[in-house]
């Protein structure tokens, strides 16, 4: 999935393998990697794998697990690439600036469309009534957060970008905590009483997820997800400015990540960390972990130059749109069973799931590797 690199001339691009590898590491769990923890727990009985399996489930409501990081990490990385590559449109000739803006609108529209396709969200089938279509989606949110962050990078100063990011986080906390609309809001952070429900019921077109009152990718929570991308922009911009001082860069990023985590968990005491509501505390916590992961990958891959293992994940990360859509449109479990069913049927408990999900991972990775070797990268 394109992350904004196309916004500057190719000779000025700075592509970091660590970013592609981290994006691939993020997508690895969607391919089926999350299922391996439970399988290895059955085999070994080790509490670590039991803990890992629990971390591979979304939080029921308030709280945070590792699986909750997958979505916001992807948005953050789109912002990092934007911060590395993009610059104000005023620095381009008018025709080039117009082309870049046109591409941004096109990318937003395609991601919203692909999100509908991923969700199989056309109700009882095509042709579908508008009321049956679920427009809200993960890909749609990625498109919205990236596009708004890109507009800010293209049209306003860095100072204004910071003001917008802080204003969104504080304003969202005030809105959810103190504003009441009908029977919703006023500090009610439940799935039935949060002010987000009012917005989804009044303004979200089409159907909601499982026809619930509140969609997990609903309207209002899109606003704070923009900050995940914006903070990624700030990190990417900082990285490209200090690339010649890797030790200083690494220590600074690690400190920023830790400070964001501390601030997020502290804010979570009064404004709960919640993925569905995408609360301001959730933004800070997820960006904190994202910065620490990026720091680790950057240190190991781009500074210490240990790139062999990174290529495994980069193969995934450089075709992320294929990865994500394929996980919904292709039954990889069926394919794995059809190829490895003989081994699965005679394997002991636990190992059956390892072979099944390991086969799914292998098959998907081989397809992506085939594309990678031929330099076929599907971008939006």
From TrEMBL:
Q: Which domain of life is it from?
A: Bacteria
Alphabetically ordered keywords of this record: Membrane, Transmembrane, Transmembrane helix
Q: Kindly list the residue ranges recorded as spanning the membrane.
A: 21-49, 69-86, 107-123, 135-155, 162-181, 219-240, 252-271, 277-301, 308-334, 354-372
Tell me which positions the record assigns to the signal sequence.
Answer: none
Q: Does the keyword Membrane apply?
A: yes
Q: Does the keyword Transmembrane apply?
A: yes
Q: Which PANTHER family match?
A: LD22376P
In its UniProt entry, what is this protein called?
Answer: DUF5009 domain-containing protein
User: Encoded by which gene?
Assistant: nagX
